Amino acid sequence: MVAPKKGKNASAQSKPGRSLALILIAIVALTGGMFASGHTTPRLGIDLAGGTSITLRAVPEEGQESAINKTNMDTAVEIMNRRVNGLGVSEAEVQTQGDRNIIVNIPKGTNSKEARQQVGTTAKLYFRPVVATELSGANATGSPSASPTGNASGEPTDKATDKATDKATDGAADKDKATDGDKASGTPSDAASASASPQGRAASDALKADPSPSASAKASDGASPSPSASASGDDATAKLQEQYAKLDCTDAGARAKAGDGSKPGESMVACGQNAQGQWQKYILGPAAVDGTDVDESEAVLNTQTGAGWTVTMKFTDKGAKKFADITGKLAQNQSPQNQFAIVLDNEVVSDPYVSQALTGGSAEISGNFDQEEAEGLANMLSYGALPLTFKEDSVTTVTAALGGDQLKAGLIAGAIGLALVIIYLLVYYRGLSFIAIASLFVSAGLTYVIMSLLGPAIGFALNLPAVCGAIVAIGITADSFIVYFERVRDEIREGRTLRPAVERAWPRARRTILVSDFVSFLAAAVLFVVTVGKVQGFAFTLGLTTLLDVVVVFLFTKPLLTLMARRKFFASGHKWSGLDPKSLGAKPPLRRTRRPARPVAGPVDPKEA
Question: Starting from the edge strand earliest in sequence, which strands make up the sheet with 167-168, in order?
């Protein structure tokens, strides 16, 4: 007698342990990763954890009231969203209110201080030539690094030493050029020489739009430099020098007003901090390069040169030409007129000096940046300038009290729903409910662990709508079990024993489960795409739990039922197993009718004939 060949179903039936082992390994790995990361609870959104709410009001430039329109406001919201996301702050809500206000909600536990600085920063970036600079206020030593009348000696200024590590370097420059550039700039101090990078010291594309040689000559002769190439008459020059003399950059109010009203084509006064954290004041020439000429910017940890965190910039074709022109002119001047200031919203963030023309179309700003500072500057440069200027109207702290009460009510509702589902399973499916309940707990555990990991990974934060999505998922998961169990019962009603019924029911149940979950996932995906804000949290959670339902049913529920079908309690159809053939109204087993054996042909007996 030949034994029947084992088919695919028999093979799968005999090795359910593989699937159970696979999901067990996945659970252990994810749980270990959760504890290793130190994030053992999901991040909470602003409605659950509290946070900061900022109200920004759009302020038009003089004579540009029409600039405050829906297009510019929507653009500002988009840029603010990108800036906040660039800092790794998720669940931050940025939305318009009225025709000129923008509300920014930042959850607790994120870098709200840095986010607050960046969301409303206009990020108007200019590269301007340095005409004069010195320490300001209490920082002043009586020996200014460069007086408004210039420095005839050509010696590097204190500011150049303080900011010796600040440089914007041509990506193509090499160490020899850096050395030559240091020599060409005068007699640099030891500090300046020691901190020069292998790529050279560098410079600003952004210097005077027209750095006239006469200005440098006057500076060398000890005469007062012209604060603006475009200024006409001595009145503008005298006014600028008066502002410079009175400017105290240690005063926050004075810093905020410095440069107000200055146009890109005019000279201005400004403030900035050196590497030691001391405030310096500047007279700056007209802007030579605009921030829009920067194509992209990135924070990079430069380990090869020892420069630490730097900000690299790539210019547009137009910007590269401007940068090459201005650095070529600046390299011919003496300190500080060979420096350029990178001015962001009227504050000097770096003031490297130029030793040669930089023609590579790229630059690097380096200094005593830490990672946060470098990424913050690169973030603003990369995501562009806001089309409008914004002022903070209010900053309020949002408590989690209301959200906590709502969360508590939501969890109670979820617990009641789960309890009702379990009671239904126990009453209707009896022994089978053990498999369903175990599957529900596995799905819940995976959901919790993955949500905890997604917080630090992609910035996912759990809000109230997301909790609702998780509660809805209980029904979706339970529905999958019911579909499979009912298919198995149908097979038993047809007269089959349990083990064949489990395998025969699976293909039909699998198709139904996949179609149902696909529809749920598609609805969640569409909802996520077409909505904004908190509703996306509901859609994301619904989609995640739908995918997990497929994983749990395929790798846990079905293999576990296959194993249980081998146990006498279930296989014998015990009345408490939920698979009792009598209670299910099973038909008698199908048996084939035996046909009488056909006689064997042989020789005919003559007597019988």
Answer: 167-168, 362-366, 308-315, 294-302
